[in-house]
Structures are given as C-alpha cells and as structure tokens.
Amino acid sequence: MTNSKKSDISEAQQDLLRRLPGVDAILEAIHEAGRFPDTPKTVILSAVRYVINSHRNEILVRPDQFKASFLDKETILRRVDAAVESAMRLNLNHVINATGVVVHTNLGRSLLSGDALAQMQTVAGRYSNLEFDLSSGKRGSRYSVVEDLICEISGAESAMVVNNNAAAVLLSLDTIARHKEVIVSRGELVEIGGSFRIPDVMAKSGAILKEVGTTNRTHLYDYQKAISENTGLLLKVHTSNFSILGFTKAVGLHELAEVGKKHHIPVMEDLGSGTFIDFSKYGLIKEPTVGESVAAGIDIVTFSGDKLLGGPQAGIIVGKKPIVDQIKQNPLTRALRIDKLTLAALESTLRAYRHEARAIKEIPTLEMITAPISEIDKKAGDLTAMLETVSNGRLRIETIEASSRAGGGSLPLLELSSKCVAVRADGLTAKTLGHRLRQHTPPVIVRIEDDQILMDMRTVQTDEVKIIATAINGIVNEAEHDQPN
Ligand SMILES: *Cc1c(COP(=O)(O)O)cnc(C)c1O
Questions:
Q1: Which of 50, 126, 343, 349 has its CA 20 to 30 A from that of 470?
Q2: pLDDT value at position 396?
Q3: 419 pocket-lining for ligand 1 (C-beta < 6 Å)
C-alpha cells in the first residue's frame, strides 16, 4: 500500500490493520491447536494468506461493517478452517438444481439413468471389448457398440457417434461439403450459445455458406434457384432455442429431400436436441423426432446425446450408409472420438428407448419433463413443511404456480406448469440468500424474483428436499450471529 493511500484511511482503520495478526502468528495458533494434521502445508498457508487479505480488504472497503471481534483468534481460525475446507473440496461436484430448467447446460445438462451409471462404473473399472471383436478375436470398432441400436430406434441405415453435436455438424460438413456451397435458409443461421454459430462452424469446416430466403420466410424456389454445380449440400437447422412467429414459411423435410434427390445433392439436418419420442403424446409441444427426419429421406441427421435424449454428452450422426461410411473415413473422426465411458452410458440410455414407457420412467430428463404436477406439488409441500418447522417465524414461505423450461436448446416455446416454493428470510435480501445457498455444500441454485428466492421443485430430486431445508435453516441461523461474509 502506498503512503498516499494510507493517509486516506481513518485512525480506526489503521488501528484495525495494526491489530490484524500476521501469517506466522496464525500458523503458530493452528499448530498449537493441533488443527489440520493431514492437510498439505501449502494449502494451510494459502488459506491463512487468503483470510488475512480478505480481512484487510474488508477493513479498507467496508470499515463500517467490520467489527473488532472479527479479529478474535477463534473467529480467524474458523475462517481459516472454512478456507482450508473449500480448498480441499473437489472443484466439480454435486449441485442442487432448483431452477426448473431441466436440461440446464451450465449445470451438466442430463442426469443419467441408474443403468447408465452402473454400466459406466463397470466399463471404467474393468477392461472391456471396446475395440475388440470377441468372435474373431481381432480388432473391432468402438462405434459398433451403439450403431445397430441407433439404427433400430431411428429407422436409419447407418449411424456413428462423436464427442458432441457440434463435432457431428463439423465432421459432416467437412466430409460432405468441403470447398463446396452449402445452402441454408436465413431463418436457420442460429447461434446456440457457448459460441456455436452455424456460419462459424461452416467456415471452420471449409464449406461455403450460401444463404437463401429471408429471416421469416424461405420457399422451395429459394433453394432451387441457388443450386449450381458448386452446391455440395442442402442444410436444414432446427431453430432449437428460439421461434419465429407470425408471417412465416419454412420448407418441409419431404420437399427438401425431394429437391436434393432430383439434383443429386445430399440433404442434411442439424436437429439440435433430437428426440426419439413424440412429446405431443404426453400433452407437450411437438418436437421433431429423429425418426421423422430419417423417414422423410434426409441423408444425414445430427443431434445431441445429452439434451432431450437424456444420455451423456455425445453427437449422433444417422443417415444413408454411403455418406456415413465416408464420414467414418474422415481423419477428423479420430480427433472427435467418443470416449469409452460415454459409450457405456450411451448404450444403456439407448437400450431404455426400446420400450418407450421404460425410457420415460428411467431416463431422468424424460421423467422430469413428463412429471405430473401432483408429484411436483408433493415435493413443494414436503419442503414447505420442513422449512416451517425450522423457520421459527423468520421465513415467509409460499407455494406459487410457475413454469419450468425444458432448456438445452429444446422445445423453446414449451412452458411446463410447475410449482415453486418461494421464500423470503427476515434480514436477508433474496440476493444474499441466493448467494449463501450457492456457497452451501452442496450448492443450491435458485431463481430470484420480486426479492424472494424461487425453488422450482420439478428439477429438485426427492432426496435433495431435505438438504435444501437444512441449508436454508443454517443460513438463517448464521445470519442471526454477526459473521463476516
Ligand atoms: C445444441 C445444439 C448444437 C450443439 O450440440 P452440442 O451437443 O451441445 O455440441 C448444435 N446445433 C443445434 C441446432 C443445437 O441445438
């Protein structure tokens, strides 16, 4: 700190800074108390430095909120404890999703079914026939683990899988349309988020984007007029995270497939989320299915493994055999290769789709999307009851109607009616409560509206209800004592 700055701070602040213990004094106290016998020294040292620095910062930035009692040895040691504990915790860990967004990309998208988890465990801890043909005793292909299953469920001739759908799109474009023109409707030049934009992926693959039509209306003749000897592909992209309403027109799959066939140009569709199930059967908005695209004669269809499909992160490519074979030969395939744990989980997930009712019940993403309101209401009631017993009148708790979203760039217009537990806590803003819930182990991620926290029970698992109640209780109790943040 420079001298000129020092002169800006008050006597009281200077006094607090002088009383702030040094690193050695705190280390000594830790040693005397016999704390952290098994923790690496470097971790303890950084925790101590962190606590001293944050105290210094608090004294300088928010002196009015800093109490002399924060400098007590016990208080400081407690904060070092917390810092050590946080440094020793895994960085990637369980969080509770109370946002109501089922396929939440930032929270890990899809949860795997019990079978998929067990299968991953087996394949991870044992040798497997990943690329070994047990009948011939020779080298086999890892893609054969899921290829037949995907064809069976989708009706496609051929299939392969890669790391994610972005990779599936890149690989397909690179294989089919390198240095050739790809005709796409202006209404479908989408950005998915996380920097996946159709024009950019196109540029990376070496394909040349040829936009046709307008944002809201594209006709068959727009594609037909754009076709030339340079055309390598007609591409359709599912507008998975937005919708254009009103005066609109898009060309249907059958018509596009017909045009492609007539001009001997392959037709590809990036379905985005992709689903094998017709959600309209469950009273939800219809999302185009993989089977429909295949049946319409689209040559290559790509989609994600971990969006509405409810499996692990993967990109699935289905379509006509000669083109899929060409894609398999592309050297890029090796760079985008799917991992064995993913394959294990994907195979299990796909097997559940052989019986739709089983898929709906066992695949958590499908189960949450189709969950009856009575089930969600029950969880809301359980959480409310638990909070009421611990709240001591310090919480205002209400169950409100709300809508959850499918998320993950799927069913953009779908609002699933749901139930949220809304909580206000005396003396805590919703922002602070939300922040402290994120600091809890496990963290609880909530929505904030009208200065209250909203917990959508659709995405909260049954065994997490109690954890949330305990977390809120702890935060409210702690807020009664004077604690620095
Ligand atoms: C989500 C999405 C992608 C990217 O899929 P990932 O599996 O996340 O790589 C590509 N295209 C569309 C239309 C999407 O919705």
A1: 50
A2: 96
A3: no
